[in-house]
Amino acid sequence: MIRFILTRTLTLILGLVLASAVIFITLRLLPGDVAQVIGGTQASPERIAEIREQLGLNVPLLTQYVQWIGGIVTGDLGTSILTGSPIEAEIVEKAAVTVPLTIYSLIIGLTIALPLGVITAVKHRSAASRFLSTASIAAAAVPVVWAGMLAIMVFSAWLGWFPSQGFPREGWESPLAAIRSLTLPALTIGLIEGAILFRFVKSATLTALDAPHVLTAMSHGLTRSRALVSHGLPSVGLSIISMLGLQVASLLVGAVVVEQLFTLPGLGRMLVSDVGNRDLLKVQSTLFVLTAVILILGAVIDIVHRLIDPRLAEAQR
C-alpha cells in the first residue's frame, strides 16, 4: 500500500508539472500584448517597455515559468496587474462562493441519482425504469445555460421562491440569504449531474445484482432487494466513489458557466473577467489552482478506493 501511495504521489507531482507547463504555454500563445493592453492605445514605446519590465515580460519565457513555479511552491501566486492585490487572497475570497456551490450541486445530484438509480436497477424491466432512463439521457444532454434560464423562469419569475441573480454583500455572514442565492445555480448543475450519475448508479447496481455472491444470496431465498442491500451495495458504493473523482471537473466547469448566468462573484466569473482584461498571471494561477484541486482529489479518491477495497491491489499483481 505504501508503494502505491508513493507511486500515486509521484504521478500527481508529474501531472501538476505538466499541467502548469501547458497552462503557461497556452496563455503565452494568446494574441495581443499585455503591456499594450495595460498602457492603452496612446501609450508611448517607452511606457510600454517600462510596463513590460515591471511585469517581468522582458525576460526569457523559461525564466518567467521558473519564477512562477517557484512562487507557487512557496505559496506566492503573484500580484494581480489590475487590482494590485495578492492573487492567492483573491482566489480564497472567490472560492467562498464556488466551493459551496460545487458541494451544493453535488448534494442535489446525489440526492437524485442514488435512490432513483438503485430502485430503477432493481425494477429495471418496469415501464418507470425505462422512462427514467430515457429522461436521464435527455436531461444529461441539456445545455447548462438553457437549464439555468428555465430554472430562473420557473422558480424565480413565476414562483418567486429564489433570487435569480447576485450574492449577498455580507456573504456568509447571512447564511440563509447566501444559500438562497446559490439554490438556483446549484439546482441547474445538480439536475444535469444527477442525470449523469443516475445512469452510472443504475449501471453499477445492475452489475452488483449479477455478481455471483448476490446471485447466491438470492438462491438461498433472499429477495432481489434484500440481496442487493445485504451483499451488493458496498460494491456500488465503491464504484460511486471512483466516479465522483471524475465528476469534480464537470462540476467546476458547470460552476464557471452558471456563475456568469447568475452573476455570482465566484472563481468562474473572476476567470472570465481576467481573460478579457488580459490579467495573465492571475488567469494562469487560477487555472493551475483549479487543475491542482481536480488532480489532488483524484489522487485522494484513488488511495481511499484502494484502502477500502484491497481486491484492487490483488487484481493488479
Order of helices and strands: HHHHHHHHHHHHH
- Strand content of the residues, in percent? under 5%
Helical residue percent band: over 70%
* General form: globular
How far apart are the termini?
A: 12 Å
Number of helices: 13
Q: What's a quick, concise take on this entry?
A:
This protein has 317 residues and is mainly α. The protein has helices spanning 2-28, 34-39, 45-55, 61-73, 87-122, 127-140, 144-158, 175-209, 212-219, 224-261, 267-276, 280-308, 311-315. Helix 5 (87-122) crosses helix 8, helix 6 crosses helix 8 (175-209) and helix 7 crosses helix 8 (175-209).
Can you characterise this structure?
By secondary structure, the protein is mainly α. 78% of the residues lie in helices and 0% in strands. The protein contains 13 helices and no strands. α11 packs antiparallel against α12. It is globular and about 85 Å long. The model has no long low-confidence stretch (mean pLDDT 83).
Features:
mainly alpha; 317 residues; 13 helices; globular; 78% helix
List the helices and strands and how they pair.
Layout: H1 2-28, H2 34-39, H3 45-55, H4 61-73, H5 87-122, H6 127-140, H7 144-158, H8 175-209, H9 212-219, H10 224-261, H11 267-276, H12 280-308, H13 311-315
Helix pairs in contact: 1-12, 5-6, 5-8, 5-10, 6-8, 7-8, 7-10, 8-10, 9-10, 10-11, 10-12, 11-12
